[in-house]
Amino acid sequence: MKSVQCNAFGPLADLVVAEVAEPVPTGRQVVIKVEAAGVNYPDGLLVQGLYQMRPELPFTPGMEAAGEVVALGPDVSNVKVGDRVGAVLQLGGYAEQAVVDERATFPIGDADAAETCALLVAYGTSHHALKQRAALQAGETLVVLGGAGATGLAAIQIGKIMGATVIAVCSSAEKQQIARDAGADHVIGYDALKEDIKRLTDGKGADVVFDVVGGAAFDACCRAMARNGRLLIIGFASGEIPKFPVNLALVKEFALVGVFWGNFTRAEPAVYADNMQELMGWYRSGQIKPLIEGRYPLAEAAQVLERILNRGAVGKLVLAP
Question: Which of 12, 85, 211, 261 could bond to 302 as cystine, CB 3.0-4.6 Å?
Answer without folding.
Answer: 12
